[in-house]
Amino acid sequence: MVGAACALYAARAGLDVIVVDRGPVAGGTTGAGEGNLLVSDKEPGPELDLALLSVRLWTELAQEHGESIEYEAKGGVVVATSPGSLTALERLAAEQRAAGVTAVPVAGDALYGLEPHLAPGLPGGVHYPQDSQVMPALAAARLLRASGARLFTGRTVTDVLRTPEGTVLGVRTDRGDIHAPALVNAAGTWGGDLAALAGTTLPVLPRRGYVLVTEPLPRMVRHKVYAADYVADVASDSAALQTSPVVEGTAAGPVLIGASRERVGFDRTFSLPALRALAAGATRLFPFLADVHAIRSYVGFRPYLPDHLPAIGPDPRVPGLFHACGHEGAGIGLSTGTGHLIAQVLTAKTPDLDLTPFSPDRFAEETA
Amino acid sequence: MTSPLDLADAHPGPAFTVTLDGRRIEALPGQTVAAALWTAGVASWRSTRGEGRPRGIFCGIGVCFDCLVTVNGRPNQRACLVPVAPDDVIRTQEGTGHDD
What we know:
A: FAD/NAD(P)-binding domain; 26% strand; B: mainly beta; five-stranded mixed beta sheet; three-stranded mixed beta sheet; 2 helices
């Protein structure tokens, strides 16, 4: 998705774009996500600024492509499960408001006006109208087509061509060389491998997540609904299995249930403990789910960088190399802002956001 | 004409009855719901969510979820997998099967 957005904004900026993907469109992490465009789960800081920019750009794209990418400005509802978590959630919401987020506290009763099928007795929550959703595989495909970029799928980059001084000249692939003065690394969870081909480092690691899919239902869950513990899990550095319930309906009918996080490498094995924990958590939030069939699950690998921020911008160690990866579980949402900023730096414009926090060489000392 | 029972040299136990939308249908022990419906000459028992098109068996092995049917009040059962049992109440299914 990030690559598709980079292609779109770079092409709009007048550049000639070629997209190379070793798999099909949305064959990696993009196809394994829920398509969340979220501001609610981000603490104030550079990632939230990027999310606000991205959500605004998604709104623009939705005017043209909304229906074909199943864009839904459904809003998010974060639910506190205890009085203590409500206090912490409201404090976070106040900080987010100061940073430009619309975050509306919702007292107990009003919560059931927003989500009638929530478990009874919840103390309250916060409503985030800016949270929205797309169907990520459709979004990647549509934006790629809209970009007009030349698309080479099923083609693997095997080397990065550079001058003796190290400047990027293009890529070598298993089906020939492609010459280009600028190379954008949007390889997601595999971005570290591409960086290595270019003779540099980027410590992207996989963080596994499962999504459980129910049978199609009439609209029972109206917003993206999740428990307040989710924000803490997203920011955690633990390698062990963590789950916090994230529940949402889709335009097609199935309810998607997340979210699990584990650092277990690229292991695609089905994990019954993880999926059981997801089902149990979702049923605690929405008791009606106990009588609904889960018909399948899918698994993916979030591209994770040690400080949970993506790498966006030029790599000062390799002239001509730009990075746009490491967005962890927020890559669909943050793709538009990332593509916009990449297009700005590719065309030597001043980017709308300060890219220092996203600098690709900020880990250089750790990995040296 | 040779029947499937003859071909398989099958000797199932005595037939029993189930209902499809209130109509009595004869079924054999060991049949799936889908097999019983086919035997009764019914090839479609669900209409799709979007355009209300007729659906019945497609893959027949539990993968495609096309043959969904409501059995004993429980919607979205795969007719090709669920064994039919005496007095089952089978209902054709519209939409998601959840009263939408």
